[in-house]
Automatic annotation (TrEMBL):
Any GO BP annotation: protein maturation
Organism the protein comes from: marine sediment metagenome
Pfam families named among the record's database cross-references: AIRS (PF00586)
Domain PurM-like N-terminal: 36-143
Gene3D superfamilies (alphabetical): PurM-like C-terminal domain (3.90.650.10), PurM-like, N-terminal domain (3.30.1330.10)
PANTHER family from the UniProt entry: HYDROGENASE EXPRESSION_FORMATION PROTEIN HYPE, HYDROGENASE ISOENZYMES FORMATION PROTEIN HYPE
Record-given protein name: PurM-like N-terminal domain-containing protein
Length: 196
């Protein structure tokens, strides 16, 4: 990668693999960084800690709710119970009010309570470097070694069970951000499905 300009979105997987190849190893890390690996797993004997970090940059609507739920989902995908959450909240100078910060914290608290998760720390900051609120969440979960789903047994030809629709999260975000424009093109029934 000679070009210093990257497109918007995730970094190129080949470039990431190059970066990962130079990282040090720890024998207790069962699942470390890698393409398609959404959380790390650390061996603590009979139990494992599952750790996930994910930023919410695509929307400011329901920011706290999305941060908790997206991180919790990635923990649960490895068979672990999400238990502890840390949140870093970066706020723009313009448009930040006590009411906005309280609303975001209420979203985090409500989402944590609904899932039995404790908010255990984080960081808040008003900075000129962002134009809208951004939250980076870190979720920590735990699972017994026997119940860990680390993906190492997945092979070509395995069946996939889809329990809900595809792109539910993305569809909801698009609705939150562009509902007025969508009203011009979609029925009320379809808009209701997008919203919920």
């Amino acid at each position: 990668m000679e070009n210093n300009s990257f497109p918007i979105g995730k970094l190129d997987p080949r470039f990431l693999e190059e970066l990962f190849s130079s990282l040090s190893d720890d024998k207790r890390v069962i699942v470390g960084p890698g393409i398609g690996k959404d959380a790390a797993v650390i061996d603590f004997g009979k139990t494992c800690l599952v750790v996930k970090t994910d930023p919410i940059t695509f929307t400011s609507c329901n920011l706290g709710w999305y941060s908790v739920n997206i991180n919790a989902n990635d923990i649960a995908c490895l068979g672990a119970a999400p238990r502890w959450f840390l949140a870093t909240l970066l706020l723009p100078r313009k448009g930040t009010s006590e009411a906005l910060v309280k609303r975001i914290f209420e979203e985090v608290n409500s989402a944590c309570q609904a899932l039995g998760i404790s908010l255990i720390g984080g960081h808040t900051e008003v900075t000129p470097r962002v134009a809208h609120p951004i939250m980076v969440g870190e979720m920590i979960g735990e699972v017994s070694r026997e119940k860990l789903i680390d993906g190492s047994g997945v092979k070509l030809g395995d069946a996939i069970l889809l329990t809900k629709g595809i792109a539910i999260e993305g569809t909801s975000v698009i609705y939150q951000e562009k509902s007025e424009k969508l009203k011009e093109q979609f029925s009320d029934k379809m808009l209701s499905r997008m919203k919920n």
